[in-house]
Amino acid sequence: MLTAFAIFSDGLVYAAYLFLVAVGLTLIFGVMKILNVTHGSFYAFGAYGAATAAGVWFDRGWSDAGGLLFMVGLAMLIGLAIGIVLERGILRFVYGKDEVVIVLVTYAVFLILEDVIVLVWGPRSYAAYQPMVAAGSIDVGDLTLSNYDIGMVVLAAALAAFGYWALKFTRYGKLLTVVIFDREVAAAYGINVKVIYTVTFLIGAMLGALGGAVMAPKISVTLGIGVEVIVLAFAVVAIGGMGSIEGALIGALIVGFGRAAAVHLVPQVELFVIYAVMALVLGFRPHGLFTQPAPRKI
Amino acid sequence: MSRLSTIACRTFGLATALTLGSVVAASAQQPAAPAAPPIKLGIVSFLSGPAASPFGVPGRNGAEIVIEALNAGKAPAPYNTVGFAGTKIETKFVDEAGSTAQVVTEFRNLVQRDQVDAVVGYISSGSCLAVTPVADELKALTVYFDCGTPRIFEEKPRKYVFRPSSHATKDSTGAARYLVARKKDITLFSGINQNYAWGQDSWKDFVGAMNVLAPKAKVDKELMPKLFQGEFGAEISTLLTSKSQALHSSFWDGDLESFIIQSSARGLQKRMPFIGTTAESSIWRLRDKLPDGTIVGGRGPHGPLAPDNELNTWFKTIYMDRYGTPPTYPSYQMALSLLGLKVAWEKAHKAKGSKPTTDEVVAAFENIEYESPSGTVKMALGNGHQGIQATAYGTYRFNKQKGQPELVDVVRFAAECVNPPSDKSSEEWLKAGMPGAKC
Amino acid sequence: MSAILSVRDLEKTFGSVVAARDISLDVPAQQTVGIIGANGAGKTTFVNMITGHLSPSKGSILFEGNDITGLPSRTITRLGISRSFQVAQVFPSLTVTENMWAAAAIARGRDSIIARALTPLDTPEAKTEADAAMELFQITRYRDARAVTLPQGVRKLLDIAMAVAGSPRVLLLDEPTSGISIEEKFGLMDVVMSALKTRRITVLFVEHDMEIVGRFADRVLAFYDGTVIADERPETVLANPRVQTFISGTKPAGEGAVHA
Amino acid sequence: MASRGTLIGAAAFAILAAGAPLLPQWLVSLSTIAFANALVVLGLVILWRTGLVPFGQALFYAIGAYAVALLGRYTPVRDVFVVVIAGAVCAGIVAYLVGFLLARYREIFFAMLSLAMSMILYGVLVKTETLGSTDGFHVEAGSFFGWRPQGAMRNLALFWLVLGCCAVAAVLVARYFRSVAGALAIPVRDNEIRVEFLGISVDRLIHLKLVISGILAGMGGALAALAVQHVDPQMAYWTTSGGFVFVTILAGAGSVAAAFVGSLAFELVRSIAVDLLPGAWQLILGSALLLTILFLPEGLGSLYARLRRRKEETAP
């Protein structure tokens, strides 16, 4: 019983983490058909930005809650700034090239940004644990849960709900749906696809930075965190279906619960769970759980 | 078929040109021989990637200040001669990051292109294992400073490779000895280690030592999360459901700090003390977030676990002055490796009266015993190529008045107490019940 | 003589949508069959089932007496049934000659991938055949142009020429004149049909233009609501009141619109 | 028509082989690794011409390398010719098996699935403590028909071996490119439907390409293992695959020779970058890749130029 509850709560927390990390990636892929390797950099810059913000804020002894907001705010600003530079400075010149070539462009930018992090922040690690510590914990039976983790689950759920609402009921969301469905038709109907692209990329960049900022208090912010996150996010998105928000949510839940169950029941297999699930899902549903394969038109 | 098919090899000529061109460039790089050429050392350490911050950069920093002090002749006696035997030292720093093939290629470049007199470096055990046969092949004097795997000298005797820092077995045996001394009645313990060679070996050795020292104690949870996983919620829950009385971990840096923050937020350390075999390198960042009572090791008697001697005071001072933080164990390991090389070099130089050859330095290096900022180093294992040192563990306490970390109840274990004897591999020694251990 | 192509009780459903049903017919060798019908009447579904792009939900297809129902398209092609497409399917980044070489080479080799990897693409036979086909379809003067730059009509011809490269006995043309201006349509069809006649190929072609159907077809199948409502000589079919109502539009709805 | 190219290639090959003893040793070693990796790149070129980019080619690379290492560890087989062929065959068999699944995928899904496969192998290797886990283990120095050269001679012999393998591979791949199956790469990328309706299975064409590229990658891995004398799971990690894709882009898919030139250029650039700016070599490599894609499409060979033309024509 305890184990079942632990699996449930751990699964939720891990799924929340995965969803926060993957949602920006899937949004950008859905709209722009770009598999954005730079997503790992957004995450890393978000985490570093948040850690810097934490240093500035908490050194002055200001309030914890405000500190978290400041961290998230600064991280998303950094995400926005890098997003603008990247989209306006590089990506818009390669739109229309082969998908795989664009992946490589983002890979190149990712390599560059990895070293930019070293140049800006130096090769040392940063901590921003104040919000995590301040949030405290709650005892549920024999298990102690961190309130910060619970907050993360709430945030992920809110983000998923907001994303669903925004896509279904806002003007921008409806435009996005059209662009996702058929870029050319959208352009033919007078939708400014270029603006949609820019806005989407910036939102995706900010979401990536948000993921980093939210995780920053839980982790030691150090070199290489971006690399780990990319593959994880790719796997989640591939399982759920590239470009689908629901897919990212379901993918995150599957991997989250799968991994939690593995850690509690068969820790030996934990290392493969995510890739095994990915290979299995792709084996049966080549385009992920939530994407219909585009029919071949003759 | 002009476009569908491909014309082979048109640009093959370019490959030749590139290769030959770089030969010309390389030969142009070699300077005309000056009167007294400095001794060239290649220093290899992680300058990028996740291992840079905890190990690579402290290691490089240690090398920089020690070599600077040596070149100025300002180190305390007996290290107060300039450079190595009066000749100044020149360094070339190389990044260890990249594939093993790249590490080996860069090693060859240092030896064959840059013609260094010795290479000092390597943090990853994988790098050390890969470089070792190449070093012997090239007859290049190579001193490892941080990598921990005992396999290097246990698999085969080596000629040109030295490792004054002791290997990883003592970290686990020391941890087990400390734990058993503090908690005689321990019956259940768990471990969380990264799922890669270092984590797997550390855990295996720790369990092996526990089996000898506390045969009644059983392993409960055996967790092996992925390297750099960062999120440990499920592992912490699993441990919270365990009645273990201690938790062993060889986590380092990012994973260590993430785990400490996440687990202390959920009160794990109130239930079982945490034994961190590398925790020393993180105490200056974690400060009051590292729970009091954590058992801290530092891969040997380094940092706050180092003995109180003149060399240590000197090293701490120059490091603090330059970098603003106290040196951690990789800096100490780099310092003792360089000092060992200096001792060997000068011994060979003295015997010969002029600049010694590599083979002469190698012969002089074997079996020496010398002092370092972290105490005596004995090149006792692996035919005199592998150093052993005492080790120490302590219990963490954050001193709120001083606002500084402290280690209390520090216990020192003599080198022969935690290291296998020269005729046994670590694994055999632990299996046999640690015979011949002198404590 | 027996039919080269026989279809029995063919049916295709997509979920609850019935795209084709109750189709049974025989096509004798070297006949030219026109297929007419409004959009969505089941013409392309019919062609897709014969050529293996769609697998029938029910019924069978016999080619030269062998059951080919549900075989993959490439096997059906190798057996001797080729097709062209409503939107010309060519290799846009290759030249016309290269397109023809590719088609000729694929058609000639054995069906083993290993053998394919050992045979050069540009054998003299393949080249000769490609040249002959380009000559036959009168596209030789475009031979060095990239397919993507071709005018629509030439692209259509190339598409059909590639389909013929495998020396099929039966060829299905899916709207060969779609996207072609009215002035060009007849010229194009003249070229195609005379080329196919010299190769003695049985032809089934989907066409909206009744005039073209009347002129080139020996026989006409009229599709409506997924099935064949008329199957006779062109003049008879075109005079059929239901055909005039539902397909050719020469008669307003209401007259004769009695559902069968 | 290929005779001139073949002549130049043969001349370059002869000059490299004959000139190797005159080169500094570090450069011989570097070129050995570069040309071993070039075989992997050559395999990627085969796939890329069809529009497929695997992010998991390290799977086959690692299999080839581990095959050699395991033979050395558990059997008395030491002959380099035997072990290299064994490595290539093992990788080919694995490629054949995973090909049944992979050959059905295209575009990014192909990339992702191949990545998943290589990461599973990575996980298995990391879990295998008897093989040294992430530390990997030593690869026995091989013999050449009983001859066991040492030191510098061994490096030279290995270089000649790698060069020989490259020459054979170059000739065979160039032949393959002219064959029906090889030449259909661009048709498959352009229009799979048309290829199917002309009477050939696209999945089987791609399956064959996977097997060939797997064999090449396995051979590259086997040679790299002999040259480095060490194998570790990192060889199966996705960043290793990423590196191969990187070189493929630099090289371009235009010709067989591009793979060799590109791989050598990459190793030299990386080595110089590490030499000059040890803290920022990724920045240099990333910039090189970015600049190549953005400004030097012509340098990438004919396929790239064609791809771009096609995209310009179809772009909205």
How far apart lie the N and C ends of chain C?
32 Å
Enumerate the strands of the largest sheet of chain A in spatial order, edge to edge or round the barrel: 1-4
In N-to-C order, the SSE pattern of chain A is HHHHEHEEHHHHEHHH
* Count of the domains of chain C: 1
Please tag this protein with its features:
heterotetramer, A: 298 residues, mainly alpha, ABC transporter involved in vitamin B12 uptake, BtuC, globular, C: 260 residues, alpha/beta, six-stranded mixed sheet, 10 helices
Report on this structure.
Chain A has 298 residues and is mainly alpha-helical. Chain A has helices at 2-32, 39-59, 64-89, 99-121, 130-135, 147-169, 171-181, 183-188, 193-215, 225-240, 245-265, 270-284; strands at 126-127, 137-140, 143-146, 220-221. Chain A is built from 12 helices and 4 strands. In chain A, β2 and β3 form a beta hairpin. Chain B is α/β, with parallel strands linked by helices and 439 residues long. Chain B has 2 domains: 39-167 and 307-388, Rossmann fold (3-Layer(aba) Sandwich), CATH 3.40.50; 169-298 and 390-431, Rossmann fold. Helices cover 43% and strands 17% of the residues of chain B. Chain B is built from 16 helices and 15 strands. Chain B has helices spanning 12-29, 52-72, 100-113, 125-138, 151-154, 169-182, 197-213, 233-240, 253-265, 268-271, 283-286, 310-323, 329-352, 358-365, 415-418, 426-431, and strands spanning 39-45, 89-95, 118-121, 142-144, 161-162, 188-192, 218-223, 247-249, 274-276, 295-297, 369-372, 375-381, 386-388, 391-399, 404-413. By secondary structure, chain C is an alpha/beta fold. Chain C has one domain: Rossmann fold, CATH 3.40.50. A 6-stranded mixed beta sheet of chain C has the order 6-7-8-3-9-10, with helices on both faces. In chain C, strands 2-1-4-5 form a 4-stranded antiparallel beta sheet, covered by helices on one side. In chain C, 48% of the residues are buried. Mean pLDDT of chain C is 83; it is low at 253-260. In chain D, α3 (58-74) packs antiparallel against α4 and α4 packs antiparallel against α10 (202-228). The mean pLDDT of chain D is 85. Chain D has helices spanning 2-19, 25-48, 58-74, 80-102, 107-127, 151-178, 180-183, 185-190, 192-198, 202-228, 238-251, 256-276, 281-295, 302-314, and strands at residues 137-138, 230-231. Helix content of chain D is 75%, strand content 1%. Chain D contains 14 helices and 2 strands. Chains B and D meet through α1, β2, α3, α4 and α7 of B and α1, α2, β1, α6 and α10 of D.
